[in-house]
Amino acid sequence: MTHTVFIDGEAGTTGLQIRERLEKRADITLLQIDPARRKDPAARAEALNSADAAILCLPDDAAREAASLVANPRTVLIDASTAHRVAPGWAYGFPELSKTQRGLIASSKRISNPGCYPTGFLALVRPLVDAGLVPADWPLTLNAVSGYSGGGKAMIAEFEDEASPSFTRAPFRIYAMNLAHKHVPEMQKHAGLTHPPLFAPAVGRYAQGMIVEVPLQLFALPQKPTPAALHAALAAAYADERFITVAGLADAANVKTLDPEGLNGTNRMTLYVFANAETGQARLVALLDNLGKGASGAAVQNMNLALGIDEGAGL
């Protein structure tokens, strides 16, 4: 069976990568609008309502507008923006979030793709909260570095376009110093936390790839969990998953460094528990491609589920 798919915003970074993943598939027919009518609401509405699945790769306001144009109850909408990640009526598109999330996505017509940073954070934290190893009201911090592609056109220009007023040759910079990054609400909600985590993001001078890190003072946690207990909870949560791997404790102990570009071009994510049992401290780390499992790959995975296709098709 062939399914029709419309990518609204396919000229952007995420849209282009979704298109690359879909255009070679025999089971997918991509719908397109005449470039001259790309901003015509009537043309967009026609494409959105004609598609079995529409993937929105748009800024938040434009994504809300596009969603309002869909009247066909059969069209599956997958929104890659931040607009609907905590909105009622939208399934959160992280299939590995819990044992019931995959079924929720498969039965939904409105799916919000997760943010790249939250994908790593939730993969590390949600199983520990569910297991009671990290209390829901615990003050969590996450540090992360992403390739500049994750910041969209403005950030890409900052690192690539020497004619841009914001162009920089800096190898690395931090941002979101107001502690109000737009990914924080979805992290808090979908991890089941009482308080927002303290999020310290950074961007490096490379295009894509990501490391997300959650440090834990194990001695301060109520249960004083061991590194082995943390690892066991993560390993149990993802034992049957095809895209998330939990590195063994012995393997993690032999890791000297991690390359944020290590999983680029894939829909995979690897989790690590780096720990010092003597000091009672741990660094939980997720390695992923911010444009793969953190964006385009996740969108395709969610689309496959919603259309009843093998989840790993095209991935």
Task: Walk me through this protein's architecture.
With 315 residues, this protein is of the alpha/beta class. The chain folds into two domains: 3-113 and 295-307, NAD(P)-binding Rossmann-like Domain (Rossmann fold, 3-Layer(aba) Sandwich), CATH 3.40.50; 116-290, Dihydrodipicolinate Reductase, domain 2. The protein contains ten helices and 13 strands. The protein has a seven-stranded mixed β-sheet with strand order 8-9-7-10-13-12-11. Strands 2-1-3-4-6-5 form a six-stranded parallel β-sheet, sandwiched between helices. The radius of gyration is 20 Å and the shape is globular. The model has no long low-confidence stretch (mean pLDDT 94).
Distance between the termini: 19 Å
Total helical elements: 10
Number of domains: 2
- Helices and strands, in N-to-C order? EHEHEHEEHEHEHEHEEHEHEEH
CATH C-level class of the largest domain: Alpha Beta
**What average pLDDT do the residues reach?**
94
The portion of residues assigned to helices is 25-40%
Strand elements, count: 13
How do the strands line up in the largest sheet?
8-9-7-10-13-12-11
- At the fourth CATH level, what is the homologous superfamily of the largest domain? Dihydrodipicolinate Reductase, domain 2
Shape: globular
Q: How much β-strand is present in the residues? A: 15-25%
> What's the alpha carbon Rg, rounded to whole Å?
20 Å
* Uncertain residue ranges: none
What is the makeup of the main sheet?
A: 7 strands, mixed
For the record, the CATH architecture of the largest domain stands as 2-Layer Sandwich
Tell me the structural class: alpha/beta
